[in-house]
Amino acid sequence: MIHGYWHPKGSASRFSATFEVNDLQRYSVTLEDGTTYRGDVSKLDISERLGNVARKITLEDGSLFTTLENDKVDELFKGRQKLNSFIHYLETHYRAIFVAIIVTFASGFAFFKWGIPWTSEKIAHALPYETNELIASGSMKFLDKAIFDESNLTKEKQQEVSKHFYDKLALLSLSDEKKIVYKLHFRSWKMGSTEIPNALALPSGDIVVTDKFIELAKNQDEIDAVLLHEMGHIVHRHGLEMMIEGTFITVAVMMITGDTSGMSDFGVGLGTALISSSYSRGHESEADRYAFDKMLQAKIDPKSFSNIMQRMTEYMATENNSSTSKDNNFLDYFASHPSTKERIEIANRYSECFRQGLTVCGI
Amino acid sequence: MEALHFSGKGSEYFKIWIVNVLLTIITIGIYYPWAKVRNRRYFYANTNLANRNFEYHATGKQLLLGFLIGVFLFSVYTFVTQIAPQFAGIFMILFMLILPWLIWRSLMFNMRVTSFSNVHFSFKGSLGRSYAIFLGYPLVGFLLLMVVGGLASTLIPALNGSGDVPTNKTALAIGSIIFGLLIIFGYIFMIALIRAKSKEYIIGNSYYGQGAFSTKLETKEFIKIYAKAFGLILIPLIIMAIGMSSLHYGGGAEIVFIVGYFGTLLGMLVIMAYVVSRERAYIYKNTLLDNKVTFKSTLGAREFAFVMFTNFLLVVFTIGLATPWAKVRVARLMLANTLVDTSVGFDEYITQQQSSVSAIGEQIGEAFDVDIDVGF
Question: 0.80 exceeded by the pTM?
Answer without folding.
Answer: no
